[in-house]
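Consider today's protein:

***
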Amino acid sequence: MGDYWCYTFWKNGYDSDLILGLVGHLPFDTFEEEGEKLKAYIPSEDCDDLFQDSLNIILDEYQISKNKTFIPNQNWNQNWENQFSPIFIEDQIAISSGDESYSSYPIHILINPNMTFGTGHHQTTHLMLKTMLDINWEGTSVLDFGCGTGILGIFAAMRQADKILALDIDERSLVNTKKILNSIKYHQNTK
C-alpha cells in the first residue's frame, strides 16, 4: 500500500461534513469523521506540490486548521484482523476470526475478514443476522447480494437453505467468501 499522510482538519463552528465538502474533491482516498474533526488520508506519492498548493488555498480562505502526520507503510489488514473482536447475537450466534471455542452458542461462524465487509460489527450485518434467526430457511434459495465475507449466505446454509448464490463486485470479497465456504469452518452446536 505504501506510506500515507494523515491530515486532521478542524474549525470552530464547522462540522466535519462542511470540511469534507471543501476538501473532498482533492485526491484523498479515505476520510474518517471524529466529531467536528475530519481525518483525510492520502498516499505519499499523491502529496505533491500541486496538491499542497490546492489544499492551502482552501484552508487559508476558510481559515481551517490542520495537523499533518506521517504514517509509514504497514499491513493494514493484519492490524485490523489482530483487533477483531468476536460478535455475539441473541445468545444464538458467535462470530470469530480465531480458534476460540464458543460451545455455549448454537451457531459459531469462523471467518477471516480479510478487509471485506460482513463481519457482524456493522449494524446492517448484525441486524440481518438477528432477523434471520426468526426465519425458516429449510429448502429456500438465498441471494447474498454484496456478500462481503459471505456470512449471511453461510448462516442461511447452516439453517438448511437449499441453494445459496453469493455475489459481490469486489474481487477480494469473492475470493474470501470462496475460501470461507471451502474451508467451511463453521459448526452448529446441538443441544
